[in-house]
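Changelog-adjacent note: as of this version, every example in the card shows the full chain rather than a window. The one below runs 256 residues end to end.
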Amino acid sequence: MLSSEATHVLAILVLAVLAMLLAAGFWHWLRGHPHYSAGQRICYFYGYVIARILWRTEVVGRLEMPSDQAAIVVSNHRCPYDPAFIQLAADRVVHWMVAKEYCRHPALAWFFRTVESIPVSRAGVDTAATRAAIRYAQTGDLVGLFPEGRINDSSRLLLPGRPGAALIAIRTGLPIVPCYISGAPVGTTILSTMFVPARTRLTIGRPIDISRFLGREKDRRAIEQLTRLMLQEIACLAGQGEFQPTLAGRRWMADV
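Full-length structure tokens:
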């Protein structure tokens, strides 16, 4: 049996080796992502470690968009870490719409500012957030949205859809890339989710052709049809092609 002093030394050696492995992993990861800012490298590496190691995330497909090609990324929404899962498949920043209260939280504001999130109000259509997303898209960036509008903690596959993604896609003429996240740790807060075991799988679909909707951003029926279409595509990635999506019942039309 080891003495207390030997046990102490062994524990230090183990921690040192783990620190070296983590540093080596960080360096290897950085070499593959030289275009991120220093702060983004820290944030995304944290997300990478959490997603890959803690929740053993498997990625099927990739966001294979040219570096100057913008797109709208949409996904189901089961936990606060969903953007981290999708970032695994991207080689550049995805600008996610995030509830304003998180972006203004003293402990989280720096993080969301660093990863260039878009603060958005939960009530109805936030025209300022929509315009910010359009500006990012017009400069060739990726914009991420959750059509459900909030975390789905119910037993339903998808909550009723909201129009934000459809509005932005029609206005910019960009393709919509559907994604489906399964096996994510279910939780509504960042801290509580950390303690939930999970084995996550991210499936990325083919871009949705929206050519028949172009020029119809003021047409409520077109926006509703496109919203249903993207939800159906997400459901198909989940293996539930018969799913019939519904729409949020609030008045949401707004000038953008």
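Structural remarks: The first strand starts at residue 58 and ends at 60.
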